[in-house]
Design goal:
- By secondary structure, the protein is of the alpha+beta class.
- The chain contains 3 helices and 4 strands.
- The protein has helices at residues 51-67, 80-92, 98-106, and strands at 2-9, 12-19, 32-37, 42-47.
- Strands 1-2-3-4 form a 4-stranded antiparallel sheet, with helices on one face.
Length: 109
């Protein structure tokens, strides 16, 4: 089971992926789901009956993450083919640019 819903924030809609629980402690709980939203840096098990609360919360989490100031710069040299591949992956995964995509992939917990 994997479902994706899109939460509007500003002029965009951000994907929220809902799957079966990943934590073994939640596998046998019939109402447990795993919810992940990269833009909000949110990923955890949740009770399906409280999903509506999370849907209300996600725009606030997105707002907080977007408000964080980014002051440091990291330079990375890649070939034009690598850049094209990264851009393609970023677009396929609904990232607004390759910086957001690389940042999300590098900071996976």
């Amino acid at each position: 089971m994997e479902n994706t819903i899109y939460i509007p924030y500003g002029t965009k809609k951000y994907p929220v992926v809902i799957t079966k629980p990943k934590d073994p402690d939640f596998k046998n709980i019939k109402t447990a789901i795993y919810v992940e939203c990269d833009e909000a840096w949110f990923s955890q098990e949740w009770d399906i009956w409280d999903l509506w609360r999370l849907i209300e919360l996600i725009p606030e989490l997105i707002k907080e993450k977007r408000a964080e100031k980014k002051q440091s710069v990291v330079n990375l040299r890649i070939s034009s083919d690598e850049k094209d591949q990264i851009e393609k992956l970023a677009k396929q995964n609904w990232y607004k640019n390759i910086s957001s995509y690389i940042r999300a992939k590098a900071l996976v917990w």
